[in-house]
Amino acid sequence: MEDIEGKQKKPGSRLCSICTHKKAALKRPKTLEQICRECFFEVFEEEIHKVVVDNQLFKSGERIAIGASGGKDSTVLAYVLSELNRRHNYGLDLFLLSIDEGITGYRDDSLETVKRNEIEYGLPLKVLSYKDLYGWTMDEIVKMIGLKNNCTFCGVFRRQALDRGAALLKVDKVATGHNADDIAETVLLNILRGDIARLGRCTSIITGEDGPIPRCKPFKYTYEKEIVIYPLS
Ligand SMILES: Nc1ncnc2c1ncn2[C@@H]1O[C@H](COP(=O)(O)OP(=O)(O)OP(=O)(O)O)[C@@H](O)[C@H]1O
Fold it and tell me: Is residue 74 marked as binding?
């Protein structure tokens, strides 16, 4: 940390700029404010609550599947949404929905994380595999077609698998862990590709309202760095 004259200050020697009585423990990536752990938790969670409310992401009584990959974004999303659902009485039935692409050494590890989340957060889990849905694992597909374009196949299959899983769970919406950095990346990609149609759509917080199941991104305004810090704080 640096003071106004640029001199190095010991971390924690400043007071939190929000509560003004605890020592600051971190510099918030989104606002550069120096704040304590407790205030970071609170502003992180309550900003997501504001996004949910302002954008009317959910309605009371809805069944919501959280696309759970076992990665940091969807793991934090599952925790925060279940907390906010309780704290603010959203009245939602939350589920974890995981797609097992059949990628040895990658998805099998992260599925273990999702199974732990099922127990820790008390959210029912549904796992659907490419093998069951399509008769092929991603490893088998790569053996057939090679590595070229395999991400395109996988992306299309996963999108459809999430829709199939959502239909099986009879949910009203799927929430994914896409964050502000992911969205910025997609904007740049669509500019470079000159894909004007996607460029217009890719920043929407709710998509697919005309398709089988709408999707929403409660982390649309959440910085990736803060999602990383949150479980460590
Ligand atoms: N196999 C999967 N099963 C269920 N949902 C998934 C799966 N893969 C991705 N998703 C959903 O799509 C979002 C974006 O996925 P992406 O592959 O870009 O990973 P990411 O940005 O690293 O997110 P995460 O840290 O949650 O893996 C995830 O946060 C999750 O909600």
Answer: no
